[in-house]
Design a protein that fits this description.
Number of strands: 2
Strand order of the largest sheet: 1-2
Number of helices: 4
Oligomer: single chain
Helix content: 40-55%
Strand content: 5-15%
Distance between the termini: 68 Å
Radius of gyration: 22 Å
Order of helices and strands: HEEHHH
Largest sheet: 2 strands, antiparallel
Length: 115
């Protein structure tokens, strides 16, 4: 069944109410002017109501994953999450990364120079 454009607002509000007006992705409370009816751009099926920033991010992330050349964007994102959750603390620190001490020293130097 396909929604009509004039039904979107009422359907979105009904669905958001079932979600207790909480965004499915970030869990934050939504207001009516910040709630969007999310849908699959491949098949058109309505998914849930998302806050505007999460809806925008979802579309951008999906587009980015597809542009990366991944055959399956979902698998790519799962691999990315696993990659982020892997412990790399025993590896070298990249030379352009500033440690907390280096950041503090840089700030002291900036203040000294401006004084």
């Amino acid at each position: 069944m396909k929604l009509k454009r004039k039904e979107i607002k009422d359907f979105r509000n009904e669905l958001a109410k079932k979600q207790d007006w909480k965004c499915t992705l970030c869990g934050k409370k939504m207001k009516e002017d910040n709630a969007t009816l999310d849908h699959c751009h491949t098949h058109g099926h309505v998914r849930t109501v998302l806050c505007r920033p999460c809806n925008s991010a979802e579309g951008k992330v999906l587009s980015w994953a597809k542009r990366s050349g991944a055959d399956n964007p979902g698998e790519f994102l799962q691999a990315l999450l696993l990659y982020w959750d892997t412990d790399y603390t025993n590896n070298y620190i990249h030379p352009v990364h500033l440690t907390p001490e280096e950041k503090q020293l840089k700030e002291y130097r900036r203040r000294l120079k401006s004084a």
